[in-house]
Amino acid sequence: VHVTYRFEEQQILKFAVYDADTTNLRLEEQDFLGYCETTLGQIVSSGSLTMPLLGMSWSKGQLTVVAEELPVCRDEVLLQFRGQNLDRKDWFGTSDPFLELHKVMENGEYYIVHRTEVIKWTLKPNWKPFVIPVRSLCGGDMERSIKVICYDWNRSGNHSLIGEFYVTLNELSKGPGPDTVYQCIHPKKQKNKSTYKDSGEIILVHYEFRKVYSFLEYIMGGMQLHCTIAIDFTASNGDPNTFNSLHHVGGPLPNQYEQVLMAVGEIIQDYDSDKMFPVLGFGARLPPDGRVSHEFFVNMHPQNPYCNGVTGVVEAYKSCIRRIQLFGPTNFSPVINHVAKFAETYQDGSQYFILLIITDGVITDLPQTKQAIVRASTLPMSIIIVGVGNADFEAMDVLDGDVVPLSYKGVRAQRDIVQFVPFRNFQNLHNVNAAKALLAREVLAEIPEQIVGYMKSRNIKPKPPSSETFLQREHVLFYQQMSNCRFFNFTIFNISEMFFCPNFQIPFCFSYINFIG
């Protein structure tokens, strides 16, 4: 079954199992054996997921579902070229050369995929190295033709052709050397002048193939996601005992904090093996002495601060509201530094940390928060900020860094790790579930790219999946079950994704043997 995977969505899958007694596969004519339900995220994070079949009181069967990512070319190449003895195109005996790389399309036409910078007043340019996806350059086909055109830049935009040549990525992969020096040919000059040789040479200076891994490869290689939640308990949320408070609980609908917790938590928990979430609070007076804290555990158990699943998180939040006094100010840096301490100890790619901050107001420790984010940008960590209510969130856009990269005292963040989303953009009073889905899609969409970006910056490769594959386990189980049936002489062939015993025509998959002949 082919399914489009989306990390930011909770993709619920239901499997129904039938005993096919006839060649007519109309379901109403088959015997129903049971069903199971899960999410695609749980299957992906487990590699293979075994579930009991439900729906029949006598059923004791199990269904094992295996996830496998279809191969897609994500790799990149770093290329650098220089030119020598290029034709003079300008009045002063020089040129302003630049290169264009064109990919050949299925219809035979060429489409530009990269343009180098212009180097002015030279006949021997040395262009900067550039990185381009293999898929963009040649569709993953190492033998597909690539057209390289050298132009002389003109202010009018009507650039003058110096020459061109054709090459394949397979040829470029030989690296710099005599085989990667290309004559730059002007077709009209070659056709009209018998003495024409070339219009200069383009020389490969550097070639580097870069393997690019996917988010799924890291997840299926065992990388664990850890989500910490931080909740704003400042007084600007309003008295929880009043209906217009953002922290009012017990109304006909979940409040905005509850909706955000459920929307994000229901997806993240599929990638956390124990589904235990630490939940922090900030900006409140705590019992028994009323001291103000910007970093406390919402369940009030410092020795065991974890909440069991999304339900446990929501229950701890509701309980906390009744025990604390909302206060202030709105400081983010303590909770960011809290998670950063853990991320700092796991920089080998085995763990990645996500901090979800839910807040209603204007941040009061902006310089300290900038410093904390810049520091965290070097760590396996992402920060999601969801703004609830109708406050002015202009400062949050600064932290997001989508337009202007975030920096602190001249030090720029190494990666963009912050995603800010105002909940009001997705709030739907008539359909809470639709609002939750839209919010989760928006706040989580950048997480896979941020994770891959961190791994790529540290040159961390994903670990291979478990060496004992699902089919290997089934192979052993098959021998055991055949022996129990007192079959001892049989041959097994590997056909596609099943083992097949031709003597008895017994294909098997999942955790049982199905005799069909």
The CATH class assignment of the largest domain is: Alpha Beta
Structural class: alpha+beta
Tally of individual domains = 4
Work out the radius of gyration: 30 Å
- How far apart the termini lie comes to 26 Å
Specify the helix fraction band: 10-25%
Overall shape: it is: globular
> How many strands?
28
Poorly predicted tracts of residues: 488-517
**Second-tier CATH architecture of the largest domain:** 3-Layer(aba) Sandwich
Query: What is the count of DSSP helices, taking H or I runs of 4+ residues?
Result: 13
Task: Profile the largest sheet.
Answer: 7 strands, mixed
Summed over residues and divided by their number, the pLDDT gives a mean of 87
- Beta-strand share of residues: 25-35%
CATH fold type of the largest domain: Rossmann fold
Give the helices and strands, then pairings.
Elements: E1 12-19, E2 31-39, H1 40-46, E3 48-52, E4 62-66, E5 76-84, E6 97-104, E7 110-115, E8 130-133, H2 134-138, E9 145-152, E10 160-168, H3 169-172, E11 181-183, H4 187-192, E12 201-210, H5 215-220, E13 224-232, H6 256-268, E14 276-282, E15 284-286, E16 291-293, E17 296-297, E18 306-308, H7 309-321, E19 325-326, H8 333-344, E20 351-359, H9 366-376, E21 381-387, H10 394-400, E22 407-408, E23 411-412, E24 418-422, H11 432-444, H12 447-457, H13 470-484, E25 493-495, E26 498-501, E27 506-509, E28 512-513
Parallel strand pairs: 13-14, 13-20, 20-21, 21-24
Antiparallel strand pairs: 1-2, 3-4, 5-8, 5-12, 6-7, 6-9, 9-10, 11-12, 14-17, 14-18, 15-16, 15-19, 22-23, 25-26, 26-27, 27-28
